[in-house]
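User: Second chain of the day. Same drill as before.
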Amino acid sequence: MNAPALLPTNELVLYDALDHIMRTARASSTQTRRLRWIASRAHVALQGLPYVASEHDQPKMVSEAVLQAKNHQLRLANARLRNALAQVAGGATGYSDRDTELAQIAQAALDAEQEARA
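Assistant: Same format as last time:
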């Protein structure tokens, strides 16, 4: 990459900014993988060395495929729950008093889900 030529004052400002980012990331009370990566990346830049990704502990990246898989699993679980509620709403226990109560609870849950979708 062709970076623009920096004036000496800009170099000092950028150096100070990177140093501050590095110190802040290291001083965090909760050390996460991402914060350690930020500190490491800033440290290398301050030394004037090129960034080599394999030399740094990379932060965890969630891919689109992982998100889609999780979304699919949630949809399946939701469908199973809806089926169970529908069965209960139809009276599946064999005890008439309990079936009526469960049917009312299940129907209320199904109605609430329909309202949430609307």
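The helical segments are 8-27, 33-46, 64-89, 96-117.

User: Great, on to the next one.
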